[in-house]
Design brief:
Elements lengths: L1 E5 L5 H14 L4 E5 L19 E5 L14 H21 L4 E5 L1 H6 L5 H13 L3 E5 L5 H6 L2 E4 L20
Parallel strand pairs: 1-5, 1-6, 2-3, 2-4, 4-5
Helix pairs in contact: 2-4
Length: about 170
């Protein structure tokens, strides 16, 4: 099954983590690969609290072109491609029941990776009966069409719009 979680609101990664928690609770093996989130520490980075059969790996180098990013675009492209290659490798191993590609939609919208490769990944995962969750705002229409389930997280109100900073443990 392919699940897309998109939209401009807070909670896409959180939703995917909730699904991961539900899946490992049923004895499934889940891997989350993060495409954009990079060097800073989020609550989910604390390996000591991970349930059995869950793993998270960061592949991204952080935000691209904003918030002080000084890395060349090529470095972000290499990191995103390496993360997608890692996803394909995991698919080939067949040791996971679910693979979450966190912020892959953002990597796609920034043209860091090719949509055709992500669609290929989804097809291969379906053939192997491995569930896939794709998160991030701006999911391409082709990915939405290919998905079995699509949820849109819509921002109604956010403290950031009132000048407040993101809170650790809530937003990251």
């Amino acid at each position: 099954m392919v699940i897309v979680i998109t939209g401009n609101g807070k909670g896409k990664t959180t939703s995917a983590l909730g699904q991961a928690f539900r899946s490992v609770g049923d004895g499934k093996r889940v891997l989350m690969l993060q495409f954009i989130k990079g060097p800073w520490k989020s609550g989910e980075d604390n390996k000591d609290i991970w349930p059995k059969n869950f793993e998270l790996r960061k592949g991204g180098l952080g935000f691209i072109g904003i918030l002080g990013d000084k890395l060349p675009r090529e470095e972000h492209e290499k990191a995103a491609q390496k993360t997608l290659d890692e996803a394909f490798q995991e698919l080939g191993l067949g040791e996971r029941d679910m693979i979450i590609l966190d912020e892959v939609n953002v990597a796609l919208s920034l043209n860091l990776i090719k949509l055709e490769k992500v669609l290929e990944f989804c097809r291969e995962a379906n053939e192997k009966k491995i569930d896939v969750i794709l998160t991030g705002r701006d999911a391409p229409q082709e990915l939405i069409a290919a998905a079995d389930i699509v949820s849109e997280v819509r921002e109604v109100k956010h403290i950031y719009n009132e000048g407040q900073k993101a809170r650790k443990g809530v937003e990251y």
